[in-house]
Amino acid sequence: MDGDFFLRLTDVGREVAEQTYEKHCFFTRLLTEAGVDPKTAEQDACRMEHVISEGSFQHLKKNILEKK
After folding, report:
1. Exposure b/e, 25-43, CB count within 10 A at least 16 = b
2. How many domains does the chain have?
3. What percent of the chain is predicted at pLDDT more than 90?
4. In a domain, 4, yes or no
């Protein structure tokens, strides 16, 4: 954090943040479309985004998106 209280990310940090946010959005949407309460979906997505491997996430995302 700099003197103006802005958080500055390295390129690697930005990439990790973007990947995590992509997972979060994906899981939130998947859960709400399955009928999960939006607040619960948001909380569960927050947990899921941190524990799933990148490989599993990519396979899951590809499989689900192909079926739509």
Report:
1. ebbbebbbeeebeeeebee
2. 1
3. 82
4. no
Token duo for residue 35: 């009928």
Specify the higher pLDDT residue, 37 or 1.
Answer: 37
Within 8 A by CB and 6+ apart from 61, the residues are 26
From CA 45, how far away is CA 18, in angstroms rounded? 15
45 vs 34: CA distance, rounded Å: 13
How does DSSP classify residue 55? H
List the alpha helices (DSSP H) in 1-68: 11-33, 38-51, 54-66
Domain that includes residue 17, residue range: 11-67
